[in-house]
Design brief:
379 residues, alpha/beta, Aspartate Aminotransferase, domain 2, Aspartate Aminotransferase, domain 1, 7-stranded mixed sheet, 5-stranded mixed sheet, 12 strands, 38% helix, globular, binds pyridoxal-5'-phosphate
Length: 379
Protein backbone atom coordinates (compact mmCIF):
# COMPACT_ATOMS: atom_id res chain seq x y z
CA UNK A 1 0.00 0.00 0.00
CA UNK A 2 1.04 3.60 -0.43
CA UNK A 3 2.26 5.92 2.35
CA UNK A 4 -1.03 7.79 2.82
CA UNK A 5 -3.02 4.54 2.95
CA UNK A 6 -0.70 3.07 5.58
CA UNK A 7 -0.80 6.31 7.58
CA UNK A 8 -4.59 6.10 7.74
CA UNK A 9 -5.09 2.37 8.27
CA UNK A 10 -2.14 0.66 10.01
CA UNK A 11 -3.00 0.15 13.70
CA UNK A 12 -6.39 1.79 13.14
CA UNK A 13 -8.54 -1.26 12.46
CA UNK A 14 -12.20 -0.75 13.51
CA UNK A 15 -12.99 -1.84 17.07
CA UNK A 16 -14.11 -5.51 16.83
CA UNK A 17 -16.60 -5.29 19.71
CA UNK A 18 -18.58 -2.25 18.49
CA UNK A 19 -17.48 -1.54 14.93
CA UNK A 20 -16.28 1.96 15.92
CA UNK A 21 -14.14 3.17 12.99
CA UNK A 22 -11.81 4.93 15.41
CA UNK A 23 -10.25 2.61 17.99
CA UNK A 24 -11.31 3.69 21.50
CA UNK A 25 -9.00 5.46 23.93
CA UNK A 26 -8.12 2.91 26.61
CA UNK A 27 -7.98 5.32 29.53
CA UNK A 28 -7.14 2.70 32.15
CA UNK A 29 -4.06 2.00 34.24
CA UNK A 30 -4.57 -1.74 34.71
CA UNK A 31 -6.18 -4.75 33.02
CA UNK A 32 -8.20 -7.45 34.81
CA UNK A 33 -6.71 -10.92 34.41
CA UNK A 34 -9.19 -13.76 33.77
CA UNK A 35 -7.09 -16.14 35.86
CA UNK A 36 -3.68 -16.17 37.51
CA UNK A 37 -0.89 -16.05 34.96
CA UNK A 38 -3.21 -15.17 32.05
CA UNK A 39 -4.10 -11.83 30.45
CA UNK A 40 -5.61 -10.56 27.22
CA UNK A 41 -2.36 -9.07 25.96
CA UNK A 42 -2.08 -6.22 28.47
CA UNK A 43 -1.53 -6.11 32.21
CA UNK A 44 -0.42 -2.59 33.21
CA UNK A 45 -0.38 0.63 31.19
CA UNK A 46 3.26 1.52 31.94
CA UNK A 47 4.31 -1.67 30.13
CA UNK A 48 1.97 -1.40 27.15
CA UNK A 49 -1.53 -0.38 26.15
CA UNK A 50 -3.59 -0.71 22.97
CA UNK A 51 -3.31 2.95 21.87
CA UNK A 52 0.48 2.84 22.22
CA UNK A 53 0.73 -0.43 20.33
CA UNK A 54 -1.48 0.94 17.52
CA UNK A 55 0.66 4.05 17.07
CA UNK A 56 3.89 2.04 17.27
CA UNK A 57 2.75 -0.34 14.53
CA UNK A 58 1.88 2.57 12.26
CA UNK A 59 5.17 4.38 12.85
CA UNK A 60 7.28 1.25 12.30
CA UNK A 61 5.57 0.81 8.94
CA UNK A 62 5.93 4.46 7.85
CA UNK A 63 9.65 4.56 8.72
CA UNK A 64 10.30 1.08 7.27
CA UNK A 65 11.50 -0.23 10.65
CA UNK A 66 11.01 -3.53 12.47
CA UNK A 67 9.51 -2.02 15.61
CA UNK A 68 8.76 1.40 17.08
CA UNK A 69 8.34 2.58 20.66
CA UNK A 70 6.65 5.84 21.60
CA UNK A 71 7.61 8.00 24.55
CA UNK A 72 6.25 10.91 26.58
CA UNK A 73 8.46 13.40 24.69
CA UNK A 74 11.14 13.48 22.01
CA UNK A 75 13.76 13.96 24.70
CA UNK A 76 12.60 10.82 26.57
CA UNK A 77 12.98 8.88 23.28
CA UNK A 78 16.48 10.28 22.66
CA UNK A 79 17.52 9.60 26.27
CA UNK A 80 16.40 5.96 25.85
CA UNK A 81 18.63 5.63 22.77
CA UNK A 82 21.72 6.90 24.63
CA UNK A 83 20.97 4.37 27.39
CA UNK A 84 21.88 1.64 24.90
CA UNK A 85 25.49 2.65 25.66
CA UNK A 86 27.73 1.75 28.59
CA UNK A 87 29.92 4.11 30.67
CA UNK A 88 33.18 4.85 28.86
CA UNK A 89 31.61 4.72 25.39
CA UNK A 90 31.76 7.63 22.96
CA UNK A 91 29.22 9.22 20.60
CA UNK A 92 29.80 11.55 17.64
CA UNK A 93 26.96 14.09 17.50
CA UNK A 94 25.98 16.59 14.79
CA UNK A 95 27.39 19.93 15.89
CA UNK A 96 24.30 22.10 15.42
CA UNK A 97 22.02 19.66 17.19
CA UNK A 98 18.73 20.66 18.93
CA UNK A 99 19.51 22.54 22.17
CA UNK A 100 17.75 19.96 24.35
CA UNK A 101 20.02 17.21 23.02
CA UNK A 102 23.04 19.41 23.72
CA UNK A 103 21.81 19.90 27.31
CA UNK A 104 20.97 16.18 27.84
CA UNK A 105 24.38 15.04 26.63
CA UNK A 106 26.73 17.72 28.02
CA UNK A 107 24.95 18.43 31.31
CA UNK A 108 23.45 15.08 32.30
CA UNK A 109 24.73 12.00 30.49
CA UNK A 110 28.41 12.95 30.82
CA UNK A 111 27.98 12.47 34.57
CA UNK A 112 27.16 8.81 33.86
CA UNK A 113 30.41 8.23 32.01
CA UNK A 114 29.31 8.72 28.41
CA UNK A 115 31.52 10.80 26.12
CA UNK A 116 30.26 13.08 23.34
CA UNK A 117 32.08 14.91 20.52
CA UNK A 118 30.25 17.50 18.43
CA UNK A 119 31.22 17.91 14.82
CA UNK A 120 29.74 19.10 11.54
CA UNK A 121 28.52 15.73 10.22
CA UNK A 122 27.80 17.22 6.77
CA UNK A 123 31.55 16.78 6.22
CA UNK A 124 32.61 13.10 6.20
CA UNK A 125 36.24 13.90 7.06
CA UNK A 126 35.02 15.52 10.29
CA UNK A 127 33.18 12.34 11.24
CA UNK A 128 36.24 10.20 10.56
CA UNK A 129 38.45 12.62 12.47
CA UNK A 130 36.13 12.51 15.51
CA UNK A 131 36.35 8.71 15.79
CA UNK A 132 38.06 7.23 18.83
CA UNK A 133 38.72 3.62 19.86
CA UNK A 134 35.68 3.80 22.21
CA UNK A 135 33.28 5.34 19.65
CA UNK A 136 30.05 3.30 19.45
CA UNK A 137 27.45 5.60 17.96
CA UNK A 138 26.95 8.43 15.49
CA UNK A 139 23.98 10.69 16.24
CA UNK A 140 22.87 12.80 13.28
CA UNK A 141 20.21 15.46 13.06
CA UNK A 142 19.38 16.31 9.43
CA UNK A 143 18.36 18.98 8.71
CA UNK A 144 19.73 20.51 11.90
CA UNK A 145 17.67 22.75 14.12
CA UNK A 146 17.87 25.71 13.30
CA UNK A 147 20.88 25.93 10.98
CA UNK A 148 19.35 23.57 8.38
CA UNK A 149 22.61 21.71 7.72
CA UNK A 150 22.10 18.49 5.75
CA UNK A 151 24.10 15.34 6.43
CA UNK A 152 24.43 12.71 3.70
CA UNK A 153 22.83 9.80 5.60
CA UNK A 154 23.90 7.04 3.18
CA UNK A 155 27.54 8.21 3.24
CA UNK A 156 27.65 8.34 7.06
CA UNK A 157 25.88 4.95 7.16
CA UNK A 158 28.68 3.44 5.05
CA UNK A 159 31.23 4.86 7.47
CA UNK A 160 29.25 3.56 10.45
CA UNK A 161 29.06 0.08 8.89
CA UNK A 162 32.80 0.07 8.20
CA UNK A 163 33.55 0.88 11.86
CA UNK A 164 30.68 -1.19 13.35
CA UNK A 165 28.98 1.87 14.84
CA UNK A 166 25.27 2.43 15.41
CA UNK A 167 23.85 5.25 13.29
CA UNK A 168 20.96 7.21 14.82
CA UNK A 169 19.08 9.86 12.81
CA UNK A 170 16.68 12.47 14.19
CA UNK A 171 13.99 12.67 11.49
CA UNK A 172 11.80 15.24 13.25
CA UNK A 173 12.12 18.05 10.68
CA UNK A 174 11.05 16.04 7.63
CA UNK A 175 8.93 13.16 8.94
CA UNK A 176 8.95 9.78 7.15
CA UNK A 177 6.91 11.36 4.36
CA UNK A 178 9.98 13.23 3.09
CA UNK A 179 12.89 11.18 4.46
CA UNK A 180 13.40 7.55 5.46
CA UNK A 181 16.78 7.19 7.15
CA UNK A 182 16.50 3.42 7.75
CA UNK A 183 16.29 2.83 4.00
CA UNK A 184 19.52 4.85 3.66
CA UNK A 185 21.37 2.60 6.12
CA UNK A 186 20.65 4.14 9.54
CA UNK A 187 19.91 1.70 12.39
CA UNK A 188 17.69 3.87 14.58
CA UNK A 189 15.35 6.80 13.85
CA UNK A 190 14.19 9.17 16.58
CA UNK A 191 11.38 11.72 16.47
CA UNK A 192 9.89 14.46 18.45
CA UNK A 193 6.31 13.46 17.60
CA UNK A 194 5.32 16.77 19.20
CA UNK A 195 6.09 18.23 15.75
CA UNK A 196 4.92 17.02 12.31
CA UNK A 197 3.71 13.56 13.30
CA UNK A 198 1.13 15.01 15.68
CA UNK A 199 0.95 18.14 13.54
CA UNK A 200 -1.62 20.05 15.60
CA UNK A 201 0.44 21.32 18.56
CA UNK A 202 -1.83 19.60 21.07
CA UNK A 203 0.46 17.08 22.82
CA UNK A 204 4.09 16.11 23.27
CA UNK A 205 5.53 12.75 22.24
CA UNK A 206 8.66 10.99 21.07
CA UNK A 207 9.47 7.88 19.05
CA UNK A 208 12.30 5.45 18.51
CA UNK A 209 12.06 3.31 15.36
CA UNK A 210 14.47 0.40 15.08
CA UNK A 211 15.85 -1.70 12.26
CA UNK A 212 17.51 -4.34 14.49
CA UNK A 213 15.55 -6.68 16.82
CA UNK A 214 18.41 -6.61 19.34
CA UNK A 215 18.18 -2.84 19.81
CA UNK A 216 14.39 -3.09 19.91
CA UNK A 217 14.43 -5.50 22.83
CA UNK A 218 16.76 -3.20 24.78
CA UNK A 219 14.72 -0.05 24.03
CA UNK A 220 11.52 -1.75 25.20
CA UNK A 221 13.26 -2.84 28.40
CA UNK A 222 14.44 0.75 28.98
CA UNK A 223 10.97 2.15 28.26
CA UNK A 224 9.07 -0.10 30.61
CA UNK A 225 11.74 0.09 33.33
CA UNK A 226 11.89 3.89 33.27
CA UNK A 227 8.13 4.30 32.67
CA UNK A 228 8.50 6.82 29.85
CA UNK A 229 5.89 5.43 27.43
CA UNK A 230 3.26 7.72 25.92
CA UNK A 231 -0.16 7.87 27.60
CA UNK A 232 -3.36 6.63 25.85
CA UNK A 233 -4.92 10.03 25.11
CA UNK A 234 -1.68 11.38 23.63
CA UNK A 235 -1.23 8.23 21.51
CA UNK A 236 -4.75 8.80 20.20
CA UNK A 237 -3.91 12.42 19.31
CA UNK A 238 -0.72 11.49 17.45
CA UNK A 239 -2.47 8.61 15.65
CA UNK A 240 -5.17 11.03 14.53
CA UNK A 241 -2.54 13.54 13.39
CA UNK A 242 -0.65 10.92 11.37
CA UNK A 243 -3.76 10.18 9.29
CA UNK A 244 -3.30 13.56 7.55
CA UNK A 245 0.52 13.58 7.55
CA UNK A 246 0.81 13.10 3.77
CA UNK A 247 -1.52 15.96 2.80
CA UNK A 248 -0.13 18.25 5.48
CA UNK A 249 3.48 17.68 4.37
CA UNK A 250 2.64 18.47 0.73
CA UNK A 251 1.12 21.80 1.79
CA UNK A 252 3.91 22.54 4.31
CA UNK A 253 6.44 21.98 1.54
CA UNK A 254 4.68 24.29 -0.93
CA UNK A 255 4.33 27.06 1.67
CA UNK A 256 7.93 26.59 2.87
CA UNK A 257 9.31 27.01 -0.63
CA UNK A 258 7.17 30.09 -1.38
CA UNK A 259 8.21 31.82 1.84
CA UNK A 260 11.88 30.92 1.40
CA UNK A 261 11.81 32.55 -2.05
CA UNK A 262 10.00 35.63 -0.72
CA UNK A 263 12.55 36.07 2.09
CA UNK A 264 15.54 35.47 -0.18
CA UNK A 265 14.37 38.33 -2.41
CA UNK A 266 13.71 40.70 0.52
CA UNK A 267 16.32 43.50 0.95
CA UNK A 268 16.22 43.38 4.78
CA UNK A 269 17.05 39.66 4.91
CA UNK A 270 20.79 38.91 4.92
CA UNK A 271 20.58 35.15 4.38
CA UNK A 272 17.97 32.41 4.12
CA UNK A 273 18.74 28.83 5.17
CA UNK A 274 16.32 26.50 3.39
CA UNK A 275 17.51 23.25 1.73
CA UNK A 276 15.06 23.76 -1.15
CA UNK A 277 16.90 26.87 -2.35
CA UNK A 278 19.71 26.43 -4.87
CA UNK A 279 21.76 28.76 -2.62
CA UNK A 280 21.76 26.20 0.22
CA UNK A 281 25.23 24.59 0.52
CA UNK A 282 23.83 21.03 0.63
CA UNK A 283 20.92 21.56 -1.78
CA UNK A 284 22.05 18.64 -3.99
CA UNK A 285 22.34 16.18 -1.08
CA UNK A 286 18.89 17.26 0.12
CA UNK A 287 17.45 16.72 -3.36
CA UNK A 288 18.87 13.22 -3.49
CA UNK A 289 17.97 11.90 -0.05
CA UNK A 290 14.69 13.74 0.60
CA UNK A 291 11.34 13.59 -1.20
CA UNK A 292 10.66 17.20 -0.25
CA UNK A 293 12.30 20.09 1.57
CA UNK A 294 9.77 20.62 4.34
CA UNK A 295 8.71 23.84 5.97
CA UNK A 296 11.46 24.67 8.43
CA UNK A 297 13.68 27.59 7.52
CA UNK A 298 15.88 30.17 9.20
CA UNK A 299 16.86 33.65 8.09
CA UNK A 300 19.29 36.21 9.39
CA UNK A 301 18.33 39.81 10.02
CA UNK A 302 21.84 40.79 11.11
CA UNK A 303 21.31 41.32 14.84
CA UNK A 304 19.14 40.98 17.93
CA UNK A 305 17.35 44.34 17.54
CA UNK A 306 16.02 43.85 14.00
CA UNK A 307 15.02 40.28 14.97
CA UNK A 308 13.20 41.58 18.05
CA UNK A 309 11.30 44.13 15.94
CA UNK A 310 10.20 41.43 13.51
CA UNK A 311 9.07 39.05 16.25
CA UNK A 312 7.18 41.80 18.06
CA UNK A 313 5.38 42.92 14.92
CA UNK A 314 4.14 39.71 13.31
CA UNK A 315 0.39 39.22 13.69
CA UNK A 316 -0.48 35.92 12.02
CA UNK A 317 2.79 34.09 12.77
CA UNK A 318 2.83 33.14 16.47
CA UNK A 319 5.90 33.83 18.59
CA UNK A 320 6.42 30.43 20.21
CA UNK A 321 8.82 27.54 20.70
CA UNK A 322 8.14 24.24 18.93
CA UNK A 323 7.43 23.55 15.27
CA UNK A 324 5.65 21.24 12.87
CA UNK A 325 2.06 22.29 13.59
CA UNK A 326 -0.54 23.52 11.14
CA UNK A 327 -0.05 27.07 12.42
CA UNK A 328 3.05 29.12 11.57
CA UNK A 329 5.41 29.60 14.49
CA UNK A 330 8.29 32.06 14.64
CA UNK A 331 11.13 32.02 17.16
CA UNK A 332 14.60 33.30 17.95
CA UNK A 333 16.77 30.23 18.68
CA UNK A 334 19.60 32.15 20.43
CA UNK A 335 17.15 33.34 23.09
CA UNK A 336 14.61 30.52 23.04
CA UNK A 337 15.24 26.89 21.92
CA UNK A 338 19.06 27.09 22.00
CA UNK A 339 19.60 29.25 25.07
CA UNK A 340 21.17 26.25 26.88
CA UNK A 341 24.12 26.38 24.43
CA UNK A 342 27.01 28.61 25.54
CA UNK A 343 27.13 31.82 23.39
CA UNK A 344 30.55 30.87 21.96
CA UNK A 345 29.21 27.49 20.77
CA UNK A 346 26.16 29.18 19.23
CA UNK A 347 28.42 31.64 17.46
CA UNK A 348 30.69 28.88 16.18
CA UNK A 349 27.83 26.91 14.64
CA UNK A 350 26.06 29.91 13.14
CA UNK A 351 23.18 30.48 15.56
CA UNK A 352 23.62 34.24 15.48
CA UNK A 353 21.51 36.62 17.60
CA UNK A 354 19.66 37.73 14.47
CA UNK A 355 18.83 34.24 13.21
CA UNK A 356 15.05 33.84 13.11
CA UNK A 357 13.48 30.38 12.75
CA UNK A 358 10.17 29.85 10.99
CA UNK A 359 8.04 26.74 11.16
CA UNK A 360 5.82 27.46 8.19
CA UNK A 361 2.26 26.26 8.71
CA UNK A 362 -0.43 25.42 6.21
CA UNK A 363 -2.37 28.67 6.27
CA UNK A 364 -2.96 30.48 2.96
CA UNK A 365 0.56 31.39 1.92
CA UNK A 366 -0.47 34.87 0.69
CA UNK A 367 -1.61 35.70 4.23
CA UNK A 368 1.71 34.52 5.69
CA UNK A 369 3.73 36.53 3.15
CA UNK A 370 1.62 39.65 3.81
CA UNK A 371 2.23 39.26 7.56
CA UNK A 372 6.00 38.84 7.19
CA UNK A 373 6.09 41.74 4.71
CA UNK A 374 4.35 44.18 7.06
CA UNK A 375 6.55 43.09 10.01
CA UNK A 376 9.76 43.38 7.90
CA UNK A 377 8.70 46.92 6.95
CA UNK A 378 9.02 47.82 10.66
CA UNK A 379 12.54 46.37 10.96
C1 LIG B 1 14.93 18.14 16.08
C2 LIG B 1 14.36 17.93 17.44
N1 LIG B 1 14.60 16.77 18.09
C3 LIG B 1 14.12 16.54 19.33
C4 LIG B 1 13.36 17.48 20.00
C5 LIG B 1 12.85 17.18 21.39
O1 LIG B 1 11.50 16.85 21.38
P1 LIG B 1 10.46 17.15 22.55
O2 LIG B 1 10.33 18.63 22.69
O3 LIG B 1 9.19 16.46 22.10
O4 LIG B 1 11.02 16.53 23.80
C6 LIG B 1 13.06 18.69 19.37
C7 LIG B 1 12.25 19.71 20.06
O5 LIG B 1 12.10 20.83 19.62
C8 LIG B 1 13.59 18.93 18.06
O6 LIG B 1 13.35 20.07 17.41
Amino acid sequence: MGFATDAIHIGQEPDPSTGAIVPPIYQTSTYVQPELGKNKGYDYARTAHPNRRALERCLAKLEGGQVAYVFSTGMAAIDAVFRLLRPGEHVIVSQAVYGGVFRLTTKLLVDFGLEFSFTDTSCLENVTRAMKPNTKMIYVETPTNPTMIITDIAAVARLAAEHKLTLVVDNTFLSPYFQQPLALGAHIVVHSMTKYLNGHSDCTGGAVVLARPDDAEKIYFIQRSAGTGLAPMDCFLVSRGIKTLAVRMVQHNANGMAIAKFLEAHPKVKRVLYPGLASHPQHEVARQQQRGFGAMLSFDLGGLEPARRLLNNVKLCSLAESLGGVETLISLPAVMTHVSMPPEVRQQIGITDGLVRLSVGIEDVEDLIADLDQALAKV
